[in-house]
Design a protein that fits this description.
The protein has about 450 residues and is of the alpha+beta class. The chain has 16 helices and nine strands. The strands form two sheets. Strands 2, 4, 5, 6 and 8 form a five-stranded antiparallel sheet that branches. It comes from Limihaloglobus sulfuriphilus.
């Protein structure tokens, strides 16, 4: 253990002397404060805070990840190239201790820099409302829609699965009898298209029509607080510059539908206008939720809109925690990335030259940032290509780390989404522990068999 720490200290000193590390530190120290001044978002205080936190977290994550890849790939290669390692391997130090010392030293650098820049982002973010000329309403909106950790609940499907399957089969048979099935498509592909069309038709609202979403397991932390309905409206035709006029109702409507008086308050919104293709939020009192966590949200497309709309991404959000701990969990997710990339760079440096090692490592990093997108795109392949993908590309993608979607903390912070400790723990086990241990183990195996200097007599 003492040998590992000695090598780790030397690695820390070497990393901090590198020009790359100094440039990254200097750039972030300058860019982050400037970014807090020049970002405006949509012109509101909420938009400004969201824009800064999004750009700040993404920038710090990307630059520290690229720096971790570069330094971890370079450190061992540098000592081999300039023969500094020759003296060390003659000492009573095992090669596994050398690699572990490199890894520990670089991780100390990662933790220190991540803590520094995340602290800067946090300090600027929480103090932005104090130094902005805003109204009390804007400040309250930021407190409820940003400085919180909210859990999200999706509604039940608009059509039950049995009914959806029956309607899809009926439409498929009708198209088949009329010889109108798409040419060159498999049965599964046709059914997927038909199911999507039926669901879209069920969600479409013409002028004067309404729709009710049903939610379960909605448990706000405090009945005195508000909960939020997040949605996005899509218009089939142009909606005009005034947006879409809608009216909403929320509560436990089960007894109301039976003609009885409901046990809990029912919320009726004023007429509101919302732009299309933009995520919006509606605040409703939390006391409309039933004791069993049941909630119904109804929306009417008012008759004078004269346009058919499709509500999408409807979700109920309610507060589960505070901003500080949620931000800390976001930083832990970034640290998981740095752990994997550092282990990968140290491992690659044992059997690849520096240019090849850094090229492969950066390629894997960028694949990780679009891993989920690649997965979703390749799932739409035809049956013949899909079979090839299943047995070749898909297993390789499964081995790659995931840095996008749920594994990207920036959108979670921007939308004030709760990052669960259970998710963070699984991410640590899968990426920072399992994948990193495999990479370090592979590096130790290769390094133990590597001929560092040829013996000549």
């Amino acid at each position: 253990m003492a040998n590992i720490w000695v090598i780790a200290r030397n690695t820390i000193a070497h990393a901090m002397r590198m020009k790359l590390a100094l440039v990254v530190i200097a750039l972030l120290l300058v860019i982050l404060p400037v970014l807090s001044v020049i970002t405006t978002g949509d012109g509101t205080l909420l938009g400004k805070v969201q824009s800064f936190s999004s750009y700040g977290i993404s920038l710090v994550s990307m630059m520290l990840c690229l720096m971790a890849v570069a330094i971890s790939c370079y450190s061992l290669n540098f000592e081999l190239k300039y023969k500094q390692l020759y003296m060390l391997v003659t000492k009573p130090v095992s090669r596994s201790e050398i690699l572990l010392g490199k890894f520990v030293g670089l991780m100390v650098v990662n933790v220190l820099l991540l803590a520094l820049f995340c602290s800067i982002i946090y300090a600027i973010t929480v103090n932005m409302p104090r130094f902005s000329d805003t109204t009390a309403e804007d400040t309250q909106r930021v407190e409820t829609e940003f400085f919180a950790a909210r859990a999200g609940v999706k509604p039940r499907p608009p059509i039950e699965e049995e009914k959806l399957q029956s309607l899809a089969l009926e439409r498929y048979n009708r198209l088949k009898n009329a010889d109108e099935l798409p040419q060159g498509s498999t049965v599964d592909e046709v059914f997927r298209i038909i199911r999507g069309q039926i669901i879209m038709q069920a969600k479409s609202l013409g002028p004067g029509e309404d729709f009710v979403w049903r939610f379960s397991n909605v448990y706000p932390s405090d009945e005195a607080e508000t909960i939020f309905v997040r949605f996005k409206l899509t218009a089939v035709t142009s909606a005009g510059s005034d947006g879409i006029a809608t009216q909403w109702i929320a509560g436990d409507l089960r007894k109301l539908e039976e003609g009885k008086r409901p046990d809990f308050p029912v919320y009726y919104s004023d007429i509101r206008r919302d732009p299309t293709r933009t995520a919006r939020e509606l605040q409703i009192p939390a006391n409309v939720v039933a004791e069993d966590g049941y909630l119904e949200i109804g929306m009417q497309n008012l008759h004078y809109n004269q346009v058919t709309i499709i509500p999408e991404d409807v979700e109920v959000l309610y507060k589960r925690g505070g901003f500080g701990m949620n931000f800390f969990r976001a930083c832990v997710i970034i640290l998981v990335r740095l752990t994997f990339l550092t282990a990968m760079g140290v491992s690659f440096s044992t059997w690849l030259s520096f240019p090849v090692a850094i090229f492969v490592a950066i390629t894997i990093y960028f694949i990780g940032t679009v891993n989920g997108f690649i997965f979703d795109s390749l799932e739409l392949l035809s049956s013949s290509m899909g079979l090839l993908y299943t047995f070749t590309i898909k297993p390789l993608l499964s081995l790659m780390p995931k840095f996008d979607g749920r594994f990207n903390p920036s959108p979670m912070i921007v939308s004030a989404r709760m990052i669960e400790w259970s998710f963070v723990g699984l991410n640590i086990l899968a990426t920072a522990v399992a994948r990193s241990l495999v990479l370090i183990g592979l590096g130790i195996l290769v390094f133990n068999r590597k001929e560092i200097a040829r013996i000549t007599v």
